[in-house]
Known about the structure:
The structure holds two protein chains of two kinds. Chain A is of the alpha/beta class. Chain A folds into two domains: about 20-265 and about 475-495, Aldehyde Dehydrogenase, Chain A, domain 1, CATH 3.40.605.10; about 270-455, Aldehyde Dehydrogenase, Chain A, domain 2 (3-Layer(aba) Sandwich). Chain A has helices at about 55-75, 80-95, 95-105, 110-135, 170-180, 195-205, 220-230, 245-255, 280-290, 315-325, 345-360, 400, 415-425, 440-450, 485-490, and strands spanning about 20, 20-25, 25-30, 35-40, 45-50, 140-145, 145-155, 160, 185-190, 215, 235-240, 260-265, 270, 305-310, 365-370, 390, 410-415, 430, 430-435, 455, 470-475, 475, 490-500. In chain A, strand 6 and strand 7 (about 145-155) form a beta hairpin. The longest helix of chain A has 25 residues, at about 110-135. Chain B is α/β, with parallel strands linked by helices. Chain B has one domain (about 20-130): Sandwich (Hypothetical Protein Aq_1857, Chain: A), CATH 2.60.300. Chain B contains three helices and seven strands. Chain B has a four-stranded mixed β-sheet. The chains are: A alpha/beta, B alpha/beta. Chains A and B meet through helix 7, helix 8 and helix 11 of A and helix 3, strand 6 and strand 7 of B. Chain B: It comes from Streptomyces albus.
Amino acid sequence: MSRYAAPGTDSALMSYQSRYDHWIGGTYVAPKQGGYFENPTPVTGQPFTEVARGTAEDVERAVEAAHEAAPAWGRTSPAERAQILNQIAQRMEAHLEELAVAETWENGKPVRETLAADIPLAIDHFRYFAGAIRAQEGSLSQLDEDTVAYHFHEPLGVVAQIIPWNFPILMAAWKLAPALAAGNAVVLKPAEQTPASLHYWMSLVADLLPPGVVNIVNGFGAEAGKPLASHPRVAKIAFTGETTTGRLIMQYASENLKPVTLELGGKSPNIFFEDVSDDADDFYDKALEGFTMFALNQGEVCTCPSRALIQRSHYRAFLEAGVARTEAIVQGNPLDTDTMVGAQASNDQLEKILSYLDIGRQEGARVLTGGTRAELGGELEGGYYVRPTVLEGSNDMRVFQEEIFGPVVSVTGFDDFDDAIRIANDTLYGLGAGVWTRDGSRAYRAGRAIQAGRVWTNCYHQYPAHAAFGGYKQSGIGRENHRMMLEHYQQTKNLLVSYDPKKAGLF
Amino acid sequence: MGAQGQRPAGDEGAVRDGPERVALTPAAAELLRTLTAKHGPLMFHQSGGCCDGSSPMCYGCGEFRTGASDVLLAELEVDGLAEPVPFWMSASQFARWSHTHLTVDVVRGRGSGFSLEAPEGVRFLIRSRLMER
């Protein structure tokens, strides 16, 4: 085990500034109204920096700066933009450990995840879209011998992006990389729980970007998010969060007839067919890891496999092994490289999870392991820790229907294929799902029958840049990742050209 | 009330006329008085989904447009406030929550979303119990 020193201490790899203003037009700008708010680390509950409290005036400045930058940025060649994205990736790679520690300190997630997943994935995202934009082609259609339709991709202009707190740097990369590759300027609002790590990222890459191409306005939804989402000079709004705010953002966007992409979460089923237990081999071991993936990132993942559906013929034995795997999870200081589960991102998040454990019990769910706050003591005393929890119940319980966003899985049994699909689809959401079976045909049929945007098949929680991610049903609108994302940040320009010297003959 | 004219007919009246479904803790009532003084009449819409899903979102009345897909669960009377605070939820979510009684409480924290209390360093939170049958 090794432990990274806490940011700001003597041997730390990185330190945060004591204050962050808004990043507008390539420089730091103090908030017009002069307000700041404290940013605590979930690791100990103690504040470590303060952040500008943005308002409509600050948003206005940022949108103006983005508009000043957007025309020249939109005219750069794909090769130039790709080179900048690659340079950003390279800079991040050179500072991977610092970024990992920064994100762990701000979000509470274990550093082994930020080192192995969050930051490497964010780096790869910039590289992927650097490649994708260079390979993207418009099209031409020969309509008749003398008439041609050309289709060009053009940037939208200035886009707004509102980032969630569960992956502060990776979720920003998901949105920034395609938007920048496509030639847009961005005004971005980080989550109010996790604004600082993105500023640390910006401190590493600011010199690579022309001023005004990326602007960061901090603040609260009601004060900074609303003026951004309802701004008439913003061409598109991208948001990751929950359903009520998603609807509100759509309402704001509708006032200006602007498009939105929304990623609003889910209640993802993870289905274990009986043949998983046919052998005690590597695949069985992998399936048990797949069951335990509910605890990844403390369950604070939109696609958390928070409903485990286990076929009744192997239910008891598989669940027992799953509980044992869960109990082997190492929980502790997120800066220890051995820690698998760290702190929840905020106190209200902790309280919400505990309130769900309460109603789960009242509804008759059995607590097979966990079920309480984790009191880790010492310097972690004030942090927000929950023990990984396995609940057993039925799909009509609240703990099966709402995303708890904590390290909590709700388990139930199913009889056969049709029963599995019925339960899997009995939810308002459709973001992710998992299917585990040794039968390729069954895996295919299940994957196609589940109403969700991504069905991990014999794996879970992989997020490669070259695979589309997004929701069915109330989980949202649009996709992220994959080169198709470029078109979410582009206009289509059609030139309809006649090369015929003769008139049409109508007049 | 700003949300007037948006109430669906349907079974929503039956929801309001039935047993109590939503209550406030004293701390939540106090916060509603504070927020009303700053922002005027208020409303709740219960969220679902990830991140800050499951949290009741508090807005200026009418800021969030309810429609035929929503159910009005309660009009919460708060001492000292002239207007009740309506509590809304999407009908599809209510179908899965209707067996539980909700109490709006307040905890320390910093939720994201556009809810008005976030800048105060506190967060509305739902505590639930089973409805009596």
